[in-house]
Amino acid sequence: MWQNIERDISQVIGEEFNIKHKQLVTGGDLNLCYWLSDYQHNYFIKLNDKSRLQQFETEAYSLEKIKQLNTIACPNVITTGTTLDKSYLVLEYLPFNHAGTKNWMLFGKQLANMHQESSHGQFGWQHDNYIGNTLQPNDWQSNWRTFFAEQRIGWQLQLLAEKSIILGDIEHIIRVCHDALLHHQVTPCLVHGDLWQGNIGFSDNSVYIYDPACYYGDREVDLAMTELFGQMPDEFYQGYHETYPLENGYETRKLIYNFYHILNHANLLGGVYVEQSKSNLIRILALH
């Protein structure tokens, strides 16, 4: 397997690459990850079953789209491919370090710039991709309320229903979420889609985002998720709001947007996240 990966990397970089150092990298729970080095080049590789190649290809595509904007850094994509029984994604290796106040302020400003400079005509993405291991549908839609209520909330509720986990009448919940976004005017922009602290790193005074689940949507979905599993430092929000202030009603919309991620965790992990989904749904239904 490793010889095939060495050949692939060598072909891409235009010179011979032979693995002299290989170190398991912990922290992720979806893939097996390694730091590979020949003491001149350093790469980060994700490995999974061969059937997961499409997930790596969609991730690579999202990273390339983020990088094209030149507003916020992300790891360079080296290659994707398969071996006899594995699929892989090779990225540049980045040694992350501790972030100071200025780093978080910079991150807020750069994320705001990404949202401001990536307007699009419709909501969706060039193809379906993945949020964790869950397929994320991205059919183009001109109406944000319809897109999010149906392709985010409705989709996750349907997946739960297929597991015999019924939270309520799906069409009614979709309608409530749709109506909660009724008076919010949204310009489609590129969103990371899975923006929590585990997908952010700092290296050499630069901010990097990775593991994206990109689509063109409401910028507030990214801000909302930064608050879902513990908030970012205050300096991040200060930097963002100074650059691109949020509109009134965000606190209500945040409840809808984060409901999507809680539902996804319920689908992936069950247990406490099913109960959290039920609790959030009570709050959402109270909006109607």
Automatic annotation (TrEMBL):
Gene Ontology terms for molecular function: kinase activity
Superkingdom of the source species: Bacteria
Keywords assigned: Kinase, Transferase
InterPro entries in the record: Fructo-/Ketosamine-3-kinase, Kinase-like_dom_sf
PANTHER family, sorted: FRUCTOSAMINE 3 KINASE-RELATED PROTEIN, PROTEIN-RIBULOSAMINE 3-KINASE
Annotated family: Belongs to the fructosamine kinase family.
Protein name in the entry: Fructosamine kinase family protein
Species assigned in the record: Cognaticolwellia beringensis
Lineage: Bacteria, Pseudomonadati, Pseudomonadota, Gammaproteobacteria, Alteromonadales
